[in-house]
Amino acid sequence: QVQLVESGGGLVQPGGSLTLSCAASGFTFSSYAMSWYRQAPGKERELVAFITTGGSSTNYADSVKGRFTISRDNAKNTVHLQMNSLKLEDAAVYYCSVARGGRRTWGQGTLVTVSS
User: Fold this and answer.
1) Neighbour-count burial of 94, counting CB atoms closer than 10 A to its CB (0-12 exposed, 13-18 middle, 19+ buried)
2) What is the DSSP letter of 89?
3) Which of the listed residues 9, 10, 67, 83 has the most CB atoms within 10 Å of its CB?
4) What is the per-residue pLDDT across 85-97, written as a single tens digit (0 to 9) for each?
5) Stretch 77-103: mean pLDDT, rounded?
6) Quick one: residue 95, left, alpha or beta (phi over 0 = left, psi -120 to 50 = alpha)?
7) Pairing of strands 78-83, 68-73
8) Which helix (H) or strand (E) element contains residue 16?
9) CA gyration radius for the chain?
């Protein structure tokens, strides 16, 4: 079955950096676009970044443009989210996601805490 396993979350100070990773299995990873979402307490889940199958095209939420970079390694079935210049408002649970056949699958999430 499809599995998405995120890692790399943690506590970071404002201005710091983190790299999240998502290991995918159970489907042909290179055939699907991948996304990172996040959900902060009391807020709706929001799309953070999107990458096409080959990685040639990416898209970002306005709030993270210029600070976050999504990338993928199709040989290793992984997708990453490099997060720089982190702000307090970036604190959330971050989810890796794939949409296949009209159904969206989520990982379990990884918590990012931004605090001084």
Assistant:
1) buried
2) G
3) 83
4) 999 999 999 999 9
5) 97
6) beta
7) antiparallel
8) none
9) 13
